[in-house]
Amino acid sequence: MEAPALGLPDLVKPFQLYVHERRGVALGVLTQLLGAWKRPVAYFSKQLDQVSKGWPACLRAVAATALVLGEAEKLTLGGVVPRTSLANRFY
To answer: Reverse transcriptase RNase H-like domain location, by residue (predicted)?
Structure first.
């Protein structure tokens, strides 16, 4: 299985961020709507710190969201990502 090709971000359209934590790694996909399709504009992968790795799964998900959201804000030029979803879509 291959990841879809990335599109260029359109700063006028809202973004949606999908985040998942697996084995101490925060994974994320930043998308925008293109018609009815959610087009990926960025993929993210960041290692959680040692303290966060010891937390329960629900708190690791929050830490993963904070890490990935910080990276996503660089592409949205600091703009707000209006909807953040925790999704188990990465395996």
So the answer is: 10-76
- Could you tell me the two tokens for 1? 């299985």
Q: For residue 37, tell me if it sits in a domain.
A: yes
**Residue 59 corresponds to which amino acid?**
L
Residue 52's SS3 state is helix
Backbone dihedral region for residue 77 (phi beyond 0: left; psi -120 to 50: alpha; all else: beta): left
Residues 10-29, mean pLDDT to the nearest whole number: 91
Task: Give the pair of three-digit tokens for residue 40.
Answer: 């990926």
Domain-located, residue 9: no
β-bridge mates for residue 17, sequence order:
30, 84
Q: Is 63 helix (H, G, I), strand (E, B) or coil?
A: helix
62 within domain boundaries: yes
The whole-model pTM stands at: 0.79
